[in-house]
Amino acid sequence: MNVGEIVRFALRGIGANKLRSVLTMLGILIGVAAVILLVAVGNGSAQSVADRIEALGTNTLTVMSTSRGAGGLTTEVADALDDRVLAPGVASVSPVVSTSATLTYAGAEHEISSFVGTTPGWFTASNFPVETGATFTADDEAQARRVVVIGRTVAEELFSGVDPVGKQVTVGGALFTVAGVLQEKSSSGFQDANDTAVAPISAVQQVLSGYGPLSSILVEARDPGMVDTVQSEITTILNQRAGADTYRIQNASQLLETQTETADTFTTLLGAVAAISLLVGGIGITNIMLVTVTERTREIGIRKALGAPRRVILSQFLIEATLLSVIGGGLGVAAAVIGSRFEIVGVQPVIVPSSVALALGVSVLIGLFFGGLPAARAARLRPIDALRYE
Amino acid sequence: MSNRPVLDVRSVTKVYRDGNTTVRALDNVSLRVGHGEYVAIMGSSGSGKSTLMNILGCLDVPTTGTYLLDGVDVSRLSDGQLALVRNRLIGFVFQAFNLIPRTSAAANVELPLAYSGMRAAERRRRALFSLDLVGLADRADHEPNQLSGGQQQRVAVARALVTEPALLLADEPTGNLDSHATEEVLSVFDDLNAAGRTIVLITHENEVAARADRLIRLFDGQVVEDARVGRHAA
What we know:
Order of helices and strands of chain A: HHEHEEHEHEHEEEHEHEHHHHH
Number of strands of chain A: 10
Number of helices of chain B: 7
Largest sheet of chain B: 6 strands, mixed
Number of strands of chain B: 10
Oligomer: heterodimer
Order of helices and strands of chain B: EEEHEEHEHHHEHEHEE
Strand order of the largest sheet of chain A: 2-3-8-5-7-6
Shape of chain A: elongated
Strand order of the largest sheet of chain B: 6-7-8-3-9-10
Largest interface: A-B, 23 and 28 residues
Radius of gyration of chain A: 33 Å
């Protein structure tokens, strides 16, 4: 009796009651699809969070000012951080003043919450290049020229249908010439990262913020692996120059790590919930196989009377249960793959290949395990008891 | 008659325990059946004839006593060996036909050969030959519910014959059939017996028993009559 033959018997058994087989498969299908899809949703949201954080630049550190009064972060402190000897890992240092401002152009007004004054190095450090026009230069910065690079949102609000480059906008009573428009950037959180304008720090201090302390200092490390080293290097300098309680360092890669951990927990939780539905599907298989065995007790008796060995009866029912779960699982994978093409609760799911393998593997095991009990029962039946069964 | 009997039942007793009451279905039964014999077992219901048949067919085991099938003590065999014995040595015909539903006549007849591991082409050839023997070669692709009772029983007989067993056991094979279908099945048995096959059948109809050449009558689990009858009666 070869395997192909037993598989044929099993297929005939599944075909004998199509509606019941389909419903049983549906249980496994939903379980497998739910596992794959929910893990994909968790993974997709983790990836989108990671993308947003990476957009901030993973090789940068932001030194935030926490002191309100005088002292704290000053331009001198920022200059001190760019030290080849004490801080060899630092690639660039950009002092940042940030203030809110209203931009006016040809009667149109636009309020910006973060009008940034900084140095030209900021554009590369913050991973925020210009799309049209140019950034301002170190010379512009030194001369405190009133030039500004605006974000995409600002360009759309003030200059609908007009090329903003070369136009003049009024900010705080002074005229600024638009030098360029920043590339669009994915936004993190509620704030629109494109609703911004960047000008030389000297000009901003002159016109808007005055010569108070800096809002923050953006420090770029030579490579992402050196961020932690750079953090300890600048901590030493900052403690010496500005005092330990006047600043806070924000580390994008740390933020990324924390967010990834949170997302992983979320994914695991979703997966666990889905796994329960897979288990319920498995119990459905047991139930159906028990019914099948009971219903076909006479047939088992006939087969045994004709000389079917226990092994063959066992295999027939095991294969039947496994086929139910494998076909259901396969369709579940297909359903999950199709489902992952659509956005679910605002997240584009990204399928984790290992979750497909896991869900399929588990569904096969469920077939073997939950089908095993009824199959063993069928195989153990004494022929005479099976034949007498009504 | 050959010197080694096909069936050799030695003081077999079968006791069923149902709660506190015990039922002695077979009480110290001994009998031997030689090659080529055509034996009818008769008895009223509850006389133990079905129990005897189940033991002869290796579907049930005796409480005490030994049963030798073709010289082999069946009680010593393992589960797997018993399956082999049922497959190779015994052909069973049931009162209720017991064909596998939704399965063609040919596939039903092929089943014992499938379990013995024969190749598909050879199996098909033998199954068709066996169906031809019972006169149903043209019904090979019909499913049981498309066949009349007599035809179903003849398919069952073909299935019992297909492995060329030493022994054909029939448990009231005509019990569910009308007189015409009964005649169909019995004439198949006559032909088989004429060809030298050993047949043991259970019946409670005298005209069926009359076709056999030996009649065993059971009463309360004991053999009360064992006589040569029918065409071969002295």
